[in-house]
């Protein structure tokens, strides 16, 4: 069953540059290691951070990821692919039979735009905005009677937030009067506000709205890991310079510590022992068509908010016919995302958009909920409103001086605000298996069943109202609104293996260990009880570091 | 407005050929040949045609188009043989079309005739498609490449007040500055 030959055929340029930490094994050998301390499924930020922590503590770690190891040398080409219209190649290789899915809810969920499979996970594509949840987020039910409380408080997570900011080299400032208490400055100074931020700040000030900086997982200064941001402006979907944090950084750390990282090794199911109390092996496929079993003392499932519940459901057994860790019946339930709300328009002055691809001002003034009438709103002031000159040029139907005139009126005076709006956990929103369709390995595909409730829609309308008032104060002619009817998800998959103390009402405990299986940890936004309206990955990282501490204590 | 070597480097960087930034060697020996070879996948005639097109699609105030297009294209095609082949084949299609109406190749037509040909072939309204009909291929391989080289570079985008366009590593200062005009 040696996969050596087959794997050789599948060797990529990135493979050839790697050496394996294990003596006698080539880097592209995907056969399993002898029983290890920890097997981690998924090499996104969650899995990578846990791998880095546990390997640093001297534990044997194997990470299995479904996607490939992308070659950092290709990033400029990826950027070009993205910028040039008429280039059909999907970025980061998402789509096709491997990633087939269904979306049968009232509101379509565009899953393959919302994740990346590969070493580094979705942070290869992400925007890199990283903020802490608020204290109220952890006690929403007891404070205003919405959603549910988390089994942990902000204070429990606070030291891990600081460690997560350190891990991501977050650039931030302490000028945000709405943010929860923090103990020390961010590791790097914040990116200063943009020119258009200054226009917004003035308009906001006259409306009594406070604006402030945005914490970014993006180097404002050079660090040992990466250079400073050089302003490519294509952060989402790809940062050619590596200044934007992505999880390959911690994958590299883990690898340097001796962890094995196996790419293109989609886990098919987890197996358990006869007692049904412990996971024994992760069964994974390799490109040569073989299946292997990786045995370990502890298992960590960090495959993102959709694949994590799917894998638990796929791991059904005689003892667990409804899937693993699912005695509550809640695996896949309470799926949440953040909703985008936005308003944009044009001013009769230049707004200097598109110089960088990230945002530098927000307002969290409308974040905490005053009562149960609305959910959280996080307001964003965009630095990339409207098209860039090249976008206009390449789709224009004029040339020469006419084209220059057309671009002049299309680029340069746009201004826009975005917002993330909270969606509360609802049981009927869920990830389940669609048994009528299968992926490239014959497994039922995930079905994302998603709809918007009235409270979420009302909060989107409220966000639009605030945005409209700011743009009007700016003197903008409003040209577009993304409201409750045309909103879309922010690509943050949360809630599908919720955390709690009661095994009948949750899937994992406050250590992120499943109630049902003693050596199975689930890390990622699937454990969120409520989603707030902050981008989730700093919280994912903090929770993962917490889980790593618990794992280390058990090993 | 004059296009300079700096602009070529800026355009190449926006086109993802950033590894040549600061490396003038590639540009020095970047001359094209009579016929495509492995080392020189683009011919003089291809480059002349691109220059002739650029004169139509770029704003009239832009000068030194020829050296800009020549240097940009030679490096760009060398980095991407598939693109180079596409350029050669598409130039041939454009010339075939022109041959039905004129005795000259596209590059030899007057500026107004060149603009007319683009309109007749509906290049102005075509979607870029490397496998499409002639007008769509011309839009993809020739016209959009030229427009991209210009408007995604600090020079072209700078005409519109965007000195650091997406794809160009122009630092983190310009986004903070107010309008220059
Ligand atoms: C366009 C976009 C913009 C975003 N912007 C932000 C932002 O600004 N701020 C923010 O906080 N968040 C943002 N996010 C979300 C952020 O990327 C995710 O929250 C984060 O990457 C989740 O980390 P994770 O490790 O839990 O999962 P992922 O990063 O999704 O990684 C999961 C990994 O598991 C692997 N996997 C899946 N199934 C299997 C299997 N069966 N076997 C083996 N491996 C498997 C996948 O291949 C993948 O590599 C953005 C996301 C997108 C798509
Ligand atoms: S602007 Fe974005 S893409 Fe460019 S270097 Fe900075 S982080 Fe990377």
**Total helical segments of chain A:** 13
Helix content of chain A: 25-40%
Query: How many domains of chain A, as an integer?
Result: 2
End-to-end distance of chain A:
30 Å
* Structural class estimated from helices and strands of chain B: mainly alpha
Q: Please, what is the average pLDDT of chain B?
A: 83
User: Helix content range of the residues of chain B, please?
Assistant: 40-55%
Q: Give the low-confidence spans of chain B.
A: 18-31
Number of DSSP E strands of chain B = 0
Helix/strand order of chain B, N-terminal first: HHHHHHHH
Oligomer: heterodimer
Architecture of the largest domain in chain A, CATH level 2? Answer: 3-Layer(bba) Sandwich
Rg of chain B from C-alpha positions? 16 Å
Determine and state the CATH class of the largest domain in chain A: Alpha Beta
Mean pLDDT of chain A: 93
Q: Characterize the largest beta sheet of chain B: strand count, sense, and whether it forms a barrel.
A: none
- The unreliable regions of chain A are 1-11
So what's the overall shape of chain A? globular
Count of spatially separate domains of chain B = 1
Show the largest interface.
A-B, 53 and 51 residues
What does this structure look like?
The complex is a heterodimer of chains A (555) and B (181). By secondary structure, chain A is of the alpha/beta class. Helix content of chain A is 25%, strand content 16%. Chain A folds into two domains: 31-101 and 116-170 and 243-337 and 492-555, FAD/NAD(P)-binding domain; 188-214 and 339-421 and 453-488, Cholesterol Oxidase, domain 2. Chain A has helices at residues 4-9, 13-16, 45-56, 75-83, 140-144, 154-167, 195-207, 248-256, 304-314, 389-395, 400-410, 454-474, 537-554, and strands at 36-41, 61-64, 171-172, 188-189, 260-262, 267-272, 279-285, 291-301, 339-346, 361-363, 377-381, 414-421, 430-438, 444-449, 477-482, 520-522. In chain A, strands 1, 2, 5, 6, 7, 8 and 16 form a seven-stranded mixed β-sheet that branches. In chain A, strands 10-11-12-9-15 form a five-stranded antiparallel β-sheet. Chain B has helices at residues 5-14, 24-28, 44-57, 65-79, 81-99, 111-120, 134-151, 154-159. Chain B is 54% helix and 0% strand. Chain B has eight helices and no strands. In chain B, helix 4 (65-79) packs across helix 5 (81-99). Chain B has one domain (5-31, 41-165). Chain B is globular, with a radius of gyration of 16 Å. Chains A and B meet through helix 4, helix 10 and helix 11 of A and helix 7 and helix 8 of B. Residues 41-47, 64-67, 114-115, 117-118, 121-123, 125-130, 236, 266-267, 302-304, 307, 311, 491-492, 524-525, 535-537, 540 of chain A line the site of flavin-adenine dinucleotide.
């Amino acid at each position: 069953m040696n996969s050596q030959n087959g794997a050789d055929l599948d060797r990529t340029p990135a493979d050839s540059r790697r050496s394996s930490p294990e003596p006698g094994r080539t880097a592209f050998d995907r056969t399993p290691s002898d029983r290890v301390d920890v097997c981690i499924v998924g090499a996104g930020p969650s899995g990578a951070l846990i791998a880095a922590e546990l390997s640093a503590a001297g534990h044997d770690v194997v990470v299995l990821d479904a996607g490939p190891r992308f070659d950092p040398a290709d990033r400029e080409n990826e950027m070009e692919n993205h910028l040039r219209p008429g280039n059909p190649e999907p970025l980061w290789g998402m789509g096709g039979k491997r990633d087939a899915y269904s979306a049968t809810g009232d509101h379509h969920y565009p899953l393959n735009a919302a994740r990346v499979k590969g070493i580094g996970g979705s942070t290869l594509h992400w925007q890199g905005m990283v903020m802490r949840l608020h204290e109220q987020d952890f006690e929403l039910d007891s404070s205003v009677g919405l959603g549910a409380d988390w089994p942990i408080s902000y204070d429990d997570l606070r030291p891990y937030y600081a460690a997560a900011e350190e891990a991501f080299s977050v650039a931030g400032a302490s000028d945000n009067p709405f943010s929860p208490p923090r103990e020390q400055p961010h590791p790097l100074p914040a990116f200063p506000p943009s020119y258009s931020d200054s226009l917004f700040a003035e308009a906001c000030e006259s409306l009594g709205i406070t604006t402030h900086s945005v914490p970014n997982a993006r180097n404002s200064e050079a660090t040992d890991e990466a250079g400073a941001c050089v302003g490519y402006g294509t952060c989402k979907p790809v940062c050619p310079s590596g200044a934007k944090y992505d999880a390959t950084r911690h994958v590299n750390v883990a690898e340097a510590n001796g962890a094995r990282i196996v790419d293109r090794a989609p886990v098919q199911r987890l197996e358990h022992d006869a007692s049904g109390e412990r996971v024994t092996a992760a069964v994974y496929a390799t490109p040569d068509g073989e299946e292997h079993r990786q045995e370990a003392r502890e298992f960590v499932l960090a495959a993102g908010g959709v694949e994590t519940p799917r894998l638990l459901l796929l791991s059904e057994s005689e003892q667990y016919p409804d899937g693993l860790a699912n005695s509550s019946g809640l695996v896949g339930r309470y799926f949440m995302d953040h909703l985008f709300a936005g308003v944009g328009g044009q001013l009769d002055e230049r707004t200097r958009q598109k110089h960088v691809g990230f945002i530098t001002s927000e307002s969290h003034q409308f974040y905490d909920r005053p009562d149960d009438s609305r959910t959280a709103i996080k307001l964003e002031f965009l630095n990339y409103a409207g098209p860039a000159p090249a976008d206009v040029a390449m789709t224009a139907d004029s040339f020469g001086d006419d084209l220059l005139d057309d671009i002049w009126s299309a680029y340069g005076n746009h201004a826009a605000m975005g917002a993330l709006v909270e969606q509360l956990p609802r049981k009927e929103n869920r990830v389940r298996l669609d048994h009528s369709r299968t992926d490239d390995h014959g497994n039922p595909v995930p079905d994302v069943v998603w709809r918007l409730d009235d409270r979420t829609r009302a909060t989107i309308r409220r966000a639009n109202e605030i945005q409209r008032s700011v743009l009007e104060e700016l003197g903008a002619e409003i040209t577009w609104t993304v409201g409750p009817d045309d909103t879309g998800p922010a690509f943050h998959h949360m809630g599908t293996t919720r955390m709690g103390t009661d095994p009948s009402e949750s899937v994992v405990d406050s250590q992120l260990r499943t109630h049902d299986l003693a050596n199975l940890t689930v890390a990622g936004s699937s454990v969120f009880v409520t989603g707030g309206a902050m981008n989730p990955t700093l919280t994912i990282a903090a929770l993962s570091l917490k889980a790593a501490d618990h794992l280390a204590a058990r090993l | 407005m004059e296009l300079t070597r700096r602009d070529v480097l800026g355009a190449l960087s926006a086109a993802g050929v950033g590894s040549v930034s600061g490396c003038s060697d590639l540009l020095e020996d970047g001359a094209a040949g009579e016929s495509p070879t492995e080392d020189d996948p683009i011919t003089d005639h291809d480059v002349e045609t691109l220059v002739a097109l650029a004169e139509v699609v770029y704003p009239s105030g832009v000068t030194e188009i020829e050296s800009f297009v020549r240097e940009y294209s030679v490096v760009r095609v060398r980095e991407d043989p598939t693109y180079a082949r596409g350029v050669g084949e598409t130039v041939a299609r454009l010339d075939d079309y022109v041959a039905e109406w004129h005795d000259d190749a596209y590059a030899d037509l007057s500026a107004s005739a060149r603009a007319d040909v683009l309109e007749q072939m509906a290049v102005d309204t075509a979607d870029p498609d490397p496998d499409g009909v002639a007008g769509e291929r011309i839009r993809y391989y020739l016209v959009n490449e030229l427009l991209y080289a210009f408007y995604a570079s600090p020079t072209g985008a700078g005409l519109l007040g965007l000195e650091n366009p997406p794809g160009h590593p122009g630092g983190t200062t310009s986004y903070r500055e107010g309008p220059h005009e």
